[in-house]
Amino acid sequence: MSNIDSIQTAAHYSVIVIGGGQAGLSVSYFLQQANIDHLVLEKHSVTHTWRTQRWDRFCLVTPNWQCALPGHAYDGADPHGFMKKDEIIAYLDAFIAKVNAPVLEGAAVTRVTRDAQARYIVTSTRGTFTADQIVVASGGYHTPIVPRMAERLPQSVVQVQSSEYRNADALPPGAVLVVGSGQSGAQIAEDLHLSGRKVHLAVGEAPRCARFYRGRDVVDWLADMRYYDMPVTDHPLREGVRDNTNHYVTGRDGGRDIDLRRFALEGMELFGRLEDFRDGKLRFAPNLRANLDDADDTYNRINASIDGFIEKHGIDAPPAARYEPLWQPSHERAELDLQASGIAAVVWCIGFTPDFGWLDAPVFNGRGYPSHMRGVTAVPGLYFVGLPWLHTWGSGRFSGVARDAQYIVDAICAERASAPDRVLLASPASRASITCA
User: Entry's InterPro entries (predicted)?
Assistant: First the structure.
């Protein structure tokens, strides 16, 4: 990585990339191939999130072969395994060294505006810069969601958000309430459960899928079915799929299903959606059975689509099977006395909201999400990359970000070629270095 320690105030770049995660570094990779001068501004340090916002036993939930950052496909000995946290960091470190991006770390962007000449003015904690074009690569998970009811919990109860959870021993002795059953919530609940902690889980509406089905990883089947190549415009939900919670499954111990019903048989206590806390009691919606059934319906529906693919193509595979519930709640508990339950900690796993308040551009919808077509906005010179379902399922993952970054850099080149007087505002020396293919 080409760290930049000192910057001249108001230095100009053809492109400024905001965010130094896998998306921003992927854009830098292709910008370098196009010989376009640029600067990557990173609030913390490159790939910071992978290093600081994952629990100790974290591992990938998709097989290693799907790790395909530009010029850096997984080449290890276990393509169908699931890299653990330290292995993921090693994979990223090798990518960082390979890209050698021009990065300014510790540069939190506080404002992006445009001047009368249509240049972007980028204000950061490490200086002010200008650019012809901006690529926002800071992701879409910025502000942890914690409900206001959390303010009413006793101070004796430790509260952490999923990005802060590390391991069971880091929490005080006693039972733990995990709120949310998406990908992080289900895996954190499992981590606590396997450590021997008493876990109460408030189950949300997250779907689930099988890890292995009919002799293969479900991801392998879906890849053959070209699901991961489906653009968001072809998805039945269209842009609505961006709001969907990820299916829960795990790569832990070689990969397996996460079955909350099995956990219930083993002593985990399941509830419906957490709705309130008052008079010393946690109050839950009576929707546990419905949420479990809906998750299983998705599980069986995905498997049925694989069955259809196998039949259509005459593939020799083990027989089909349908998941049947191992356990059903005999009744739905609407309340839980906090003190009597012995709950000493709460882990909030209900997601994040985007925060692009620093970007002054008319591209956001009512929920603060940017409107774009495959990362290209209606505002000249403004692009996004690394968002969930920006173009395909893999857009926010190692598997699909290279394709998106290449597309964005191609769009940058096309814009520069079509409007050179507007975008090429750098010095003559800098202009001469731009050779988009």
Answer: Auxin_biosynth/cation_transpt (IPR050982), CHP04046_FMN-dependent (IPR024000), FAD/NAD-bd_sf (IPR036188)
Rounded-to-integer distance, Cα 14 and Cα 36, Å: 7
- Are 101 and 57 within 8 A, CB to CB? no
Sort 10 into a burial class: Cβ within 10 Å, 0-12 / 13-18 / 19+. Answer: exposed
- Domains, the chain, in order of start with CATH, read 2-142+354-432 (3.50.50.60), 143-348 (3.50.50.60)
d(CA 196, CA 194): 5
Residue closest to 330 by CA, chosen among 288, 297, 283, 365:
288
Q: Which value, in Å, is the radius of gyration of the alpha carbons in the chain?
A: 23
Three-state SS for 314?
Answer: coil
Place of tokens 């957490």: 274
352-353 and 199-202: which strand pairing? unpaired
pLDDT in tens, 158-205: 999 999 999 999 999 999 999 999 999 999 999 999 999 999 999 999
Burial class (CB in 10 A: 0-12, 13-18, 19+), 36: buried
Best CA proximity match to 117, nearest among 426, 428, 431, 425: 425
pTM of the entire structure? 0.93
> How many angstroms separate the CA atoms of 402 and 396, rounded?
10
- Whole-number Å distance between alpha carbons of 208 and 291: 11
* Cα three-residue angle 87-89-91, rounded to 5 degrees: 70
For residues 333 and 348, what is the distance between their CA atoms, to the nearest angstrom?
A: 20
